[in-house]
Amino acid sequence: MRPSSLSWAAASTLVALAAAPAFAQQQPQPNPCFRWSGQMAIANKAGASTNGTSTASTLWYQGGQAKLSSDQDSNWWTNALVSLPLDESWQTGTPPLTLVEPDSGDPISPPAVSLGAMWASADGNSLYQWGGQWSDNPDVPPPAARTWRYDIQAGEWEVVQTQGDEVGNVAEGQPAIVPGQGTDGDNVAYYSHGHQDDHTTEGWSNQIARIYLNSMIQFDLGSRTMRNITSYSSNAQTSNSSTPQTNPLSRADGSLTYVPNLGTDNKGVLVSIGGATQTQYVEDGSVLDVYDIGAAGWTRQSTLGARVGSRINHCAVRGSAKVHGQQVHHIIVYGGQRINQTDRDSDLYILTIQDNTYTWTDVGTLPGAPTGRAGHQCALSGNQLVVVGGLTRDDVLCEQPGIFVLNTSSFEWQSEYRPNSVFSTPALVANLTGGIGTGFSTSGAGSATGGDGTNDPDTSGATDGSSSGPEGDVSGGTRSDGSGGDGTNAGAIAGGVVGGIVGLALLALLAFLLMRRRRRQREAEDSEKRALAGAAVAGRSNSGSSSSGRGRFVHEKGFARESFSSGAFPPYGWDRRGSGSVQHVGPASDDVEQETAGMETFISTGLAPKRELRVVNADN
Ligand SMILES: *[C@@H]1O[C@H](CO)[C@@H](O)[C@H](O)[C@H]1NC(C)=O
Ligand SMILES: *[C@@H]1O[C@H](CO)[C@@H](O)[C@H](O)[C@H]1NC(C)=O
Ligand SMILES: *[C@@H]1O[C@H](CO)[C@@H](O)[C@H](O)[C@H]1NC(C)=O
Ligand SMILES: *[C@@H]1O[C@H](CO)[C@@H](O)[C@H](O)[C@H]1NC(C)=O
Ligand SMILES: *[C@@H]1O[C@H](CO)[C@@H](O)[C@H](O)[C@H]1NC(C)=O
Ligand SMILES: *[C@@H]1O[C@H](CO)[C@@H](O)[C@H](O)[C@H]1NC(C)=O
């Protein structure tokens, strides 16, 4: 951790000494009890430089917050950098996490922030850090906005000079990355929406109300050029069922996911899901906000199928595969919080994007799912969704190591991560796509691997799509030869024979999903009513003071929800209730299995939405 600029380091040290109490509490990195709201990307491992393309061999997790124990109520923010290999097998109970850069003890350098962005360069050797929220307990006054770069091979952080627009700092926005469209074939990063307040922006007092944005930062990693996009084209088109929108809703805490080969000039689209302002959740009913990269504008895109409703601090990843010659994309949404912290769930949704149709499937909570959570980070490696951290719904006492793996082919939670898998159409939606294909192009917040998938083979086999139902060609899943990314195996993978056991399992799953769907529909109706009512509620002035919402996400909606029916917000002070006290209550009456068997569950008022997805101070 040697900042490139000595004077900057000196200045920031002075700031830290003058304004911020020492970060006394050490976190047992890389294995704290909880970690949440950090920044994550997929890149190379140290000592394995490549000549151009990322090997996607390592998951990198920077910053965010962590706790030693569930009742630790300060010093959550950290600037530690942790890695997890993706090119070897491991058990989810004992993931080989490495503390690559211990917490520096100086929250300014490198930044100890939450819910900013970390983006990997196309060659996989650089991690760019931008944006994020600074600690509120202890209070760390935000420094001037900077863009940081971690050189994986040199093991060094530096502040980088950027060109283009002078931009400030934003937190709790929506990061995404688009492969190959930047200068010299590097990646182009995006960070849409988010908010600014006294914990993001240098010199703001807590008397300035938080601002929610609908602007978008675009960062060309190749030329290091920043753009602040504040007005949007009215020519955007993301399918034949979209309408342009030039003034999208401001929000924070949603997700943004790159999907290749759609939109104007087939440059791809960025799909925005969920999010909220201080007073209102975005209701993703049958419409999503989608950004058309080629036209530089947003649309309102109609969706079919299930309704996701309101959701914040979930995670979303995308995998694509060709089925009968056509590229079909799947955005997988996991977890998040619907209304308040007791509403954190472990639900899964799939958004299947096929040419002109965007169709949601509500998968619900699968058997063996982790405890409901929000503020976790996700990455897709082949057909494995790797979940890191999060704040749990029932505030488990300790969740070490807090790493989970979902097989996105079979939609089963696994206790093992296996390298060299390949994305394949989730069997659950094979009836939508007409078959199962495999592909190498995947993306998540800070990661995009396998390019845009244009040259992926079509492995969907000879089925003609007339075979409805998941029985079609379910066995197609993962290639077992482990050859990743070279696109040479065009051999048919789909088999087509489904054993009786698999059939029975699918039937059971179907029954489960139907029950789940019925419940969701009722809830969707309820939440639509709430949203309508909420639109009439005047915005709450938010002081943004450090105590407001400490230990919670910014959008603690418990009170907002009540206000939706009463028509008035509770007094501001409600927000400050008992930041140190912990109530013991029974387990929530939901069907989520408590994965953390034997751990006492309770609801801590210190855990809520995004604010709490703040920082932790890590260890050395
Ligand atoms: C460069 O990368 C290609 C594949 O991406 C590989 O075949 C080749 O051996 C590499 N060359 C060097 C010098 O590492
Ligand atoms: C982008 O521009 C908008 C509108 O002027 C401004 O509110 C916002 O702070 C800017 N974003 C950044 C990151 O500077
Ligand atoms: C949109 O495209 C689909 C095919 O992808 C077609 O079936 C449908 O009729 C089109 N709708 C409109 C309004 O053009
Ligand atoms: C994921 O599930 C598929 C289908 O059941 C299976 O073939 C594959 O081996 C699983 N992948 C891993 C990495 O376990
Ligand atoms: C596809 O199958 C899933 C369950 O496997 C079901 O929930 C969904 O409704 C089906 N979709 C269609 C379009 O038939
Ligand atoms: C949170 O939401 C749940 C239902 O979604 C509700 O039962 C509970 O009372 C809410 N909690 C608070 C603190 O508002």
How does this model look, in words?
A hairpin with a 5-residue loop joins strand 8 and strand 9 (126-130). It is built from four helices and 41 strands. Residues 1-25, 462-507, 524-551 and 555-620 have low confidence and may be disordered. The strands form twelve sheets. A seven-stranded mixed sheet has the order 24-28-27-26-25-38-39. The chain is mainly beta. Helix 3 crosses helix 4. It has a domain at 164-449: 6 Propeller (Neuraminidase), CATH 2.120.10. One 2-acetamido-2-deoxy-beta-D-glucopyranose (NAG) binds at residues 339-340, 342-343, 558.
CATH topology of the domain at 164-449: Neuraminidase
- Contiguous uncertain segments of 5+ residues: 1-25, 462-507, 524-551, 555-620
Query: Helix/strand/pairing class, anyone?
Result: mainly beta
Chain-averaged pLDDT: 77
Query: What general form does the structure show?
Result: globular
Pfam family, one: TM_ErbB1
Protein name: Epidermal growth factor receptor-like transmembrane-juxtamembrane segment domain-containing protein
Keywords: ATP-binding, Kelch repeat, Membrane, Nucleotide-binding, Phosphoprotein, Repeat, Signal, Transmembrane, Transmembrane helix
GO molecular function, one term: ATP binding
